[in-house]
Amino acid sequence: MDYKSAGVDIDAGNDTVKRIRALARSTFTAGVLSDIGSFGGLFQTDTSQCREPVLVASADGVGTKLKVAFLTGQHDTVGSDLVNHCVNDILVQGAEPLFFLDYLATGQLSPDVAESVVRGIASACRDVGCALLGGETAEMPGFYGEGEYDLAGFIVGLVDREKVITGRTISPGDVLVGVPSSGLHTNGYSLARRIVFDQLRLTVDSHVEDLGCSVGEALMAPHRSYLSMVRPLLDGGRIKGMAHITGGGVTENLPRVLPYGTAAVVDAAAWEVPPLFRWLQQSGDVPIEDMMRTFNMGLGLVIITPHDRAEQLLGELSARGGRDTRVVGEIVAGETPAVSYINLP
Q1: What stretch of H or E contains 19?
Q2: In terms of Cα–Cα distance, which of 68, 65, 72, 78 is closest to 124?
């Protein structure tokens, strides 16, 4: 008996590393001091532009969107999803990404699938100027179903302490600016899959007239990165706070950036909810309150800005690709941070 007969193919692992080395190297920036395969990744940070440099870190996954990836055989976009999710998480605190690490675990390693996933990761890293510094590919026989894997990522970014966006200056009278999402992003898939595959009995190839595409195309739409749009606006006092609308929707994520003494009122009629969310709600007979606290409902990012800066901010976001960005509510006085809605359908 040997390790391969126990389910772990070291040769497949080495083949995978060879394939992804060039992909990772394509993301390397001036700060990278090590190569793929080292025990630890080395990165030298240029802090010359920061008086008090602060590192901002985040870790996340893609959730059960991976189940849809298994069904479609589309593996590169979940890699991009992972990076963009993590980038947005540190962006809301004003940080620029420095480097990224990934973790891919599977029951039986497929070099083709692993290469596809990492290709997506590398592509997204290049787009945002973030180095894919390293990661881990774990083969764990008996732990995952055939053809399945799990995926997680870890990002580190940099921001000057005086420029950290904390939300502490948010006050009643400020307005909420909603920036559109590009679909479900990476949250709410357990409910979406229950509706689509268990209740409606559809497949990823089923065409849905209300959506104008197949189920797989709708559910695999990439998670949008907001870095290029928001980065030029971080200076100048326009932005008091930002919330990345992920699991929990606006209901759960917006209060995370509000100081005590404030609350948010969101006008649900202020933006057009995309057809995918309306279709899921109708097909699953989902209460609107559950929709608002499960899905992003078409808003991937909410920015809090002073009332007298809102029009300028909207114009700048629109000029940088933020089409259909609009005011979706306001900050009011409140005992504890919370979200209430008006004009819910």
Answers
A1: helix 10-25
A2: 78
